[in-house]
Amino acid sequence: MAQEYTDIKGTGWFYRTLGVITVQRSGRDSGPLRSALRALQAGKLLGVFPEGRIAPSRDMLPFQTGVALMAIKANVPVYPVYLDGTQRNKEMLQAVLVRNEATISFGPPVEFDRSGTSKDQLETATKAIRQAIERLDLKQI
Q1: Is 21 helix (H, G, I), strand (E, B) or coil?
Q2: What is each CA distance from 32 to 6, 93, 114, 129, in whole angstroms?
Q3: Quick check: helix, strand or coil at residue 132?
Q4: pLDDT, tens digit, for every residue of 10-60?
Q5: Can you give the pTM of this predicted structure?
Q6: Could you give the CA distance from residue 123 to residue 76 in angstroms, rounded to a whole number?
């Protein structure tokens, strides 16, 4: 989660309780990646929005390759999840403060080549992850 959201007065305890890994969006920071890999290697569940930020509309943004990289390096499965009815098409404050009716869909583990982490391999794995999530979006059917 973006560091600035966890710095909001009175919310830090909540995010620490959840085990949120914070990211500074001002540049390249490898600390969150290392924290995520440690969590995965310790058997923890890690929820990641592969777009890297909240979409301002219902449309999915381009996926970043970080989920594929972490799954390959930690040798863990990727379970696709589609969450609708919460943050999409809303500003952060509105998404948090206004009551939402959400639906969530889960899919089976995504199969992809885990033999390396070249740019092409990560992009191919990321495409497979995106396609699995898109299949869960019932409004697309």
Answers
A1: coil
A2: 14, 24, 22, 21
A3: helix
A4: 888 888 888 888 888 776 778 888 999 999 999 999 999 898 877 667 788
A5: 0.82
A6: 18
